[in-house]
Amino acid sequence: MTSRPKGKEAGEELSSLQEDQGADLWDPTEPLPVPTEDPEGMEHSPEGALVRPSALQLYLSKISQYPLLTPEEEHQLAVRFFEHGDKEAAFRLVTSNLRLVVKIALEFQKSWMNNLLDLIQEGNVGLMQAVRKFDPYRGVRLTSYASFWIKAYILKFILDNWRLVRIGKTQAERKLFFKLYKEKEKLDRLGYEPGPRLIAERLQVREQDVIEMDQRLGSWEVSLEKPLRDDDSPTTARDLLPAPSKPLDDRLGDEQLRQILRKKIQEFRSTLKGRELEIFDERLLAEQPLTLQELGDRYGITKERTRQLESRILEKMREYLIREIPDAEEVIPDFLASLST
User: Fold this and answer.
1) Which run of H or E residues covers position 51?
2) What is the C-alpha separation between 137 and 275, in angstroms, rounded?
3) How many angstroms separate the CA atoms of 173 and 250, rounded?
4) Are residues 136 and 57 in the same domain?
5) Are residues 108 and 143 in contact, defined by beta-carbon separation less than 8 angstroms?
6) DSSP state, 45?
7) Partners of 227 in the beta sheet?
8) Does 252 reside within a domain?
9) pLDDT tens string 161-197
């Protein structure tokens, strides 16, 4: 699976945290080198043959060398970074929590069967974002705060990189992936308890499918209302994060669907030729579309005839998208309307 380019940039940023000290830092988002000649660190198979450790084993061995922090040390380092931008403090905050990223990535791998190193890489990006935004004076441990960011970045990576077929093996699973949380919200607004049976009836899927998808999607979720501390403090994740207009999973799901639609539109474009292709480019994809009259004058046809050709192209594209992404049928008209306005 291909990682997004930003991950490498984030890894370089982590490495730069101690550039001033001249430390020889390992970049946790870069592929790990596997030893080729030096037998040091090699393992033995039951038959006695040398076995090279995997990239994951090397990674885990490397991060185990970074010491964990006590709450007092964590707070002091967080203050140093928050107040003075101390890069060494930020580096220690990140590296001491790399094992937390692995733990969370393993939870996702159980549900989504992704390449674990890919998930770890994205989780590391989320961890660095958490350290960058962490306020040590809010009375919350960095681990609690960082967990949200780590999970959010890993989930976004899954949504950005998985093909639609991997989101679910069956049509029911794919439908639930895109619609489950929206249906829950709709039922909440109507005053109904959004239980599995009711959702299954409304979406015309099996109740067991609803339960299983809810567990898969819910495995990453951090409740914004859950207290982040064990004492009586009312501080929640919602207090520390800007409140979005929509839940994170809905926003990411919407964006993923739009990315899939854009990709399929480019595939549809490759099926067009001649006048249809030019109308498609000049009317539907151009930042400054030509008017129907301008295109009509170019081809020596009336404005109404140009409109008919455009409508035919849109209808062909609608049919193409529904064939390619059947579970997104209800959002395709709105998406096409946004193209033609």
Assistant:
1) strand 50-51
2) 63
3) 16
4) yes
5) no
6) -
7) 236
8) no
9) 654 434 555 667 767 777 777 788 788 777 778 888 8
Token pair 């501390």 is found at 229
Does 61 share its domain with 121?
Answer: yes
Q: Residue 331 sits in which domain range?
A: 257-340
| Matching residue, tokens 């550039």 | 19
Closest listed residue to residue 64, CA positions, set 112, 28, 19:
28
H-only helix segments in the chain: 6-16, 55-63, 71-84, 87-95, 98-112, 116-133, 142-161, 164-167, 171-189, 196-203, 207-218, 237-240, 248-269, 274-279, 292-299, 303-324, 332-340
Q: Please tell me the distance from the alpha carbon of residue 327 to that of residue 178, in angstroms, as a whole number.
A: 8
> CATH number for the domain including 121?
1.20.120
What's the pTM value of the predicted model, to 2 decimals? 0.43
Q: Which helix (H) or strand (E) holds 44?
A: strand 43-44
Token pair belonging to 50: 């040398």
Is the backbone of residue 204 left (phi > 0), alpha (psi -120 to 50) or beta?
Answer: left
Residues 148, 68 share a domain: yes
CATH number of the CATH domain containing 325: 1.10.10.10
Tens-place pLDDT, residues 272-303: 998 889 888 888 777 678 888 888 898 899 98
- Give first-to-last CA distance, the chain, whole Å: 36
Do 134 and 196 lie in a common domain? no
Angle at the Cα of 19 from the Cα atoms of 17 and 24, rounded to 5 degrees: 100
The Cβ of residue 276 has, within 10 Å, a number of other Cβ atoms equal to: 16
Domain count, the chain: 3
Which of 185-199, 301-315, 326-340 is predicted least confidently? Answer: 326-340
